[in-house]
UniProtKB/TrEMBL annotation:
Regions crossing the membrane: 6-22, 38-58, 64-87
Pfam families: DUF1294
Keyword check for NADP: no
Keywords (A to Z) from UniProt: Membrane, Transmembrane, Transmembrane helix
Record keyword Methyltransferase present: no
Organism: Flavobacterium chungangensis
Protein name as it appears in the record: DUF1294 domain-containing protein
InterPro entries assigned: Cold_shock_CspA, DUF1294
Length: 89
């Protein structure tokens, strides 16, 4: 269980840093981190880090397609957590 918590901490901090870096690059009109990279990191457990970065840096919050895809990832993750919790009963 400890390893899993460390993993989630690591991936969330990492995606938070990536999103902050991407926002910095966007302001400078430099090369950006692909959205699919941010989505993949959110999908494998970094959704809280990405959500925090989105709110704190106001990153990708006006891009509807990004929000829709991100919400879909959150729904998938919530469904998996609920299914896992019901399975353990």
């Amino acid at each position: 269980m400890e390893v899993l918590l460390l993993y989630f901490l690591f991936i969330n901090v990492l995606v938070f840093i990536f999103a902050g870096y991407d926002k910095s690059q966007a302001r400078k009109n430099n090369r950006r981190i692909p959205e699919k990279t941010l989505f993949l990191m959110a999908l494998i457990g970094g959704s809280l880090g990405l959500l925090t970065a989105m709110l704190l840096f106001r990153h990708k919050t006006s891009k509807t397609s990004f929000i829709v895809k991100f919400v879909l990832i959150l729904v998938i993750q919530a469904s998996l957590i609920i299914a896992f919790m019901n399975y353990k009963k």
